[in-house]
Amino acid sequence: MARELETGTTQFAWTQSITRSRWLAAKVGWALLAAAAWGGAVSALVTWWSSPVNALQHQNFQPSQFDIQGIVPVGYAVFAVALGLAVGTLLRRTLPAMAITVGVFTFLRLVIGQDLRSHYITAITKTFTFLHRVSGTNPNTGQTETAQQFILDELAARLAKARSAGADAIEFDNVDAYQNKTGLTISAATQEQFDAAIANLAHSADFAVGLKNDLGQASDLQPYFDFAINEQCWQYRECNSPAPGLQAWPSTYGKAVFNVEYKLATSKFCPQANSASYDFNSILKDVNLYDVPYTPCR
Description:
- The chain has 298 residues and is of the alpha/beta class.
- It folds into two domains: 2-120, no CATH class; 133-296, no CATH class.
- 50% of the residues lie in helices and 12% in strands.
- The chain has helices at residues 2-7, 9-14, 20-57, 63-66, 72-91, 94-116, 149-164, 188-204, 218-221, 248-253, 266-274, and strands spanning 133-137, 144-148, 169-172, 208-212, 227-231, 257-261, 281-284, 295-296.
């Protein structure tokens, strides 16, 4: 359009039998139709080629995927041509019109892709009931304790994967959320009920199960777990806190305690860990968990 106006060929066309409206409609119509056809052809090929990736990754709404599949390339192509026609009509100069069209189109693409599109994604809503619970029996009190079913269902699926991988023992991490800032209100009683429930779940799948940290409830949770794993209880002087804590697991209940320290010298904790009053299986390891040899106390 800009080239027609810049070279003056429009004046010649308008002096012929064709009207201005018909001339404009033909120019614009064919240009937009060609853009839609080209965008559709490219989109069809890319969508077909990307279908296996889409099925696996479900990332169709990402900028690198969404912009080149489906009807989006058709819309972008038609918009780009329409924008160029409008700018060319206003400026009546080819090169400036091309530069402004490319700049505006690129800017709008970035704004839409990076800032606006995410607000148009349909929200995914999942509803979980807090009334459907499962129970486990405390061997000390005989009382029934409960935990949320939907969490246990997810953990059961992971236990199945562990079983298929050949594992025979499980350690659930982060089972002391009541002591941390999670954004949730979790009481000590709720945490203890949950920890007991996941231990029961592991046992129901024929796994041995270890308690990871949660020293504040180690004594109460001892009946549910087969062994304990701890990080840095010697450094923080909490291996038997609150008493009797983990100290009683080996001597009183015959359950192993596996302890790892990261900062203390072995001379600072190994003698006590090896003593009959504790009998811990302690090691010293690099805090970064690099693949380097560790130092056992025994």
